[in-house]
Amino acid sequence: MAIECTNPPGLHATPGYHHVTKVEADRLVFLAGQCPLRESGDLAEGGLAGQTDQVIQNILTALESAGARPEDVVRTVIYVVSSAREDLSAVWAQLNDSPLTPAFNTASTLLGVAQLGFPGQLVEVDVTAAL
Fold this sequence. Notes:
single chain; four-stranded mixed sheet; 2 helices; 6 strands; 31% strand
């Protein structure tokens, strides 16, 4: 499997991700949006940071179950319930300072949204990997 990440001339500089990710792979892995729910189904405590920690753990578990690693991720979409740039930046920094760091080198989108699926949910991450 080959992953090629580029930032073509004519596009703005990025804070770590790449504008274009090209992949040659035998198999794609699509994770459902990973929520900050514990195995018990309870929402993780600790506000945005605590929920982001839980999402990181859930992504790592889901990737491992598919035989994938963070280095195999080719696309992420990060949803944060906030319109404050500081909250979005904090989640981006926390994700990039975690074992998932390689996943955010490829094509990535960070969005502030009004609401997510579970009451009290503040963050969710959609992940696609290639094997």
